[in-house]
Amino acid sequence: MLRATTIVRKPAVRPDAVADSLTLDHAARSRRQGELTAQGGLAVRLDLDRDTVLEDGDALRLEDGRLVRIVAAPQALLEVRSENPSRLTRLAWQLGSNHVQAEIGAEALYVLADPVVAELVRGQGCTATPVERPFRPEREAVAHDHSQCGHDHHHQGHAHDHGHAHGHDHGHAHGHDHAHHDHGHHHDHAEHAHGPDCGCGHKH
C-alpha cells in the first residue's frame, strides 16, 4: 500500500502522471487519514499532515511519484430556492447558526438531504428540491482560501469572536475600572500624605 502525503491542486496536475482515480463524497474528501482503494485497484494510504479538502480534479501524490486523481462523487442534496433573496440570506444565517454545511450558489443553496433541514427550509418559505450532484459546501470560512486550514480556522475564528467579545468586555471594563481606581487611590493618598502643609505640595 502506497502512502499519499501530498496534494497536487488541479491546475498543477499533469495527465501523464495520473495512475488512477478516486471517487469520493465530501466527507471522504475532508479526511486527513485513511485507507482507500482507487478505481483501478490501487491501494492508497492517505496520510496528510493537515486538515484540508480535496476538490474535484485535485490529485494525491504517492510516494513513488505517481498521482491519483480525485473525482467529487454526486450526493443526495436539497436545492434550496426562494423568490425572495432576503429569505435565502436569513436561511443561510440560520443554517450556519445550526452548523449545517451549505453550498452557496448564485441563486440557490445546496445542503445534504435531511428531513429536519428540509422542514427548516420550508418553514422559512423556501423550496427544497432533491437533486444529485457533487457537494461543495463553504469551507467554514469560510469558509477561509481556506484549503489548508478550512474547518479548524473557522472554528477557531468563531471561538475567537465569542471569547474575545466576552473577554474584552469583561476584562477591559474591569481592567479600566481597576486602573482608574488605582489612579484615584494614589492621587488621594498623595494629597493626604503631601498636603500643602507638608511643604512639598509644589513638587507633587
From TrEMBL:
UniProt keyword list: Chaperone, Cytoplasm, Nickel
Listed under GO biological process in this entry are:
protein folding; protein-containing complex assembly; urea metabolic process
Q: Does the keyword tRNA processing apply?
A: no
Recorded superkingdom: Bacteria
Q: Where in the cell is it found?
A: Cytoplasm
InterPro entries named among the record's database cross-references? UreE (IPR012406), UreE_C_dom (IPR007864), UreE_N (IPR004029), UreE_N_sf (IPR036118)
Q: Where is the composition biased (Basic and acidic residues)?
A: 141-151, 158-180
Ranges for domain UreE urease accessory N-terminal: 3-68
**Looking at the keywords, is Transcription present?**
no
Q: Offer an example of a GO molecular function term for this protein.
A: nickel cation binding
Q: Give the residue ranges for region: Disordered.
A: 141-204
A Pfam family matched by this chain, by name? UreE_C
A single Gene Ontology CC term: cytoplasm
What this protein is reported to do is described as: Involved in urease metallocenter assembly. Binds nickel. Probably functions as a nickel donor during metallocenter assembly.
- Provide the family line: Belongs to the UreE family.
> What is this protein called in UniProt?
Urease accessory protein UreE
Q: Which organism is it from?
A: Methylobacterium oryzihabitans
